[in-house]
Design brief:
Blueprint lengths: L21 H5 L8 E5 L4 H12 L3 E6 L2 H8 L5 E5 L5 H13 L6 E4 L17 H24 L3 E5 L23 H23 L5 E6 L14 H7 L10 H4 L5 H4 L1 H8 L9 E4 L2 E2 L27 H15 L7
Parallel strand pairs: 1-2, 1-4, 2-3, 4-5, 5-6, 6-7
Antiparallel strand pairs: 7-8
Helix pairs in contact: 4-5, 5-6, 6-11
């Protein structure tokens, strides 16, 4: 099938760089009166995203599975509400969304930031593979249930934090939950992030009639997050980022983004006026990413080369197929009109 890709999927030359910080991106933007929901907004780049949006005046709601850890990490930040939600539990998602919808508030920003990586094969109560359930199906479910509040905002944005990891695997429409193939954790992660990108493409296509735009993004190679906490150190060695003792090489560490730099592209997608007429694109380094047709050389020991978006993960035909499959898996229709 011929590829069907958004012609806007090309760099804007935004004026920001890979090393711009979230604070630099939001300078001059006032979010007073706006409401944001950020999943995973209490650790790593999610916490920085929460802090920056709240500092610009937004009321930020952080749904968390571990509310004790979240309360500790969010202590001292104003304009924060902490809620309970577990993305692996559909009933928990429903209850959180029902509470928010019943409050009558509008939702200006939904940032689907939470994610897991490098985990062994785990399944949720439905039998769904955990990375797909957490990184994609949970955000699809949450966005669907919050849709009325997003429509009410008349100008909302949905930002799905994806990853360069989408390059590790396309979406397997035949066996998404590894029921008939050997489980490889990076293939599971890769397809979950490809799904995030495709979701953003179709969500934007359906939502723009309601003045809702959607984006996916790669935060960059960031030092200091706990995303890879379950990764075997041998994998890091194979990638060339760590020495034989399992320590990150100083020259690699020096080129990694800081957490404030890692949150910058999320903030850019959430607030930049440069995107007012653009949606359904995958972004990186505070700009729209270049399509990777094989012309980009990638080296994991040189983080600046970890860029570009695979055509299969922004293809409109794949995005429409995934939307329909997601509705079948979750057992409800998401009428994003």
């Amino acid at each position: 099938m011929e590829q069907n890709i958004n012609p806007m999927q090309q760099p804007l030359h935004s004026g920001f760089t890979a090393y711009s910080t979230a604070q630099e991106v939001i300078n001059g933007i006032d979010l007073t009166g706006k409401t944001a929901i950020i999943t995973g907004g209490y650790a790593g780049i999610g916490l920085e995203t929460t802090r920056i949006l709240a500092s610009a005046g937004a009321q930020v709601i952080v749904p968390a599975r571990d509310t004790e850890k979240a309360a500790q990490n969010l202590s001292g930040i104003n304009n924060i509400e902490l809620e309970v939600m577990d993305l692996m539990n559909p009933t928990s998602i429903d209850h959180f969304a029902e509470r928010f919808i019943s409050s009558g508030r509008t939702l200006d920003l939904l940032i689907n930031n939470a994610g897991i990586m490098w985990v062994p094969l785990r399944r949720d109560s439905r039998g769904f593979e955990s990375q797909l359930a957490t990184n994609y199906l949970g955000q699809f479910h949450l966005t669907a249930k919050l849709w009325p509040a997003l429509k009410k905002a008349n100008g909302a944005r949905v930002v799905n934090v994806s990853s360069y990891g989408h390059q590790m695997a396309p979406f397997d429409f035949e066996d998404p939950h590894f029921e008939n193939r050997d489980y490889e954790t990076l293939l599971g992660y890769g397809q979950s992030k490809t799904a995030c990108n495709l979701f953003s493409v179709e969500l934007d296509n359906r939502g723009k009639k309601s003045n809702i735009r959607a984006y996916s993004l790669h935060p960059g190679s960031v030092f200091g997050t706990d995303l890879g906490r379950e990764e075997p150190i041998e994998l890091y060695k194979q990638l060339g980022t760590h020495d034989e003792n399992g320590n990150i090489k100083p020259e690699v560490k020096a080129r990694l983004k800081t957490i404030p730099q890692g949150a910058a592209t999320t903030i850019w997608c959430a607030v930049s006026p440069q995107l007012n007429e653009i949606g359904g694109v995958y972004c990186e380094n505070c700009d729209i990413a270049e399509i990777d047709n094989g012309q980009i050389e990638h080296r994991f020991d040189e983080p600046v080369t970890i860029r570009g978006v695979q055509p299969y993960s922004v293809d409109r035909n794949n995005a429409e197929l995934l939307w329909k499959l997601s509705e079948e898996m979750l057992g409800f229709q998401f009428d994003a009109q």
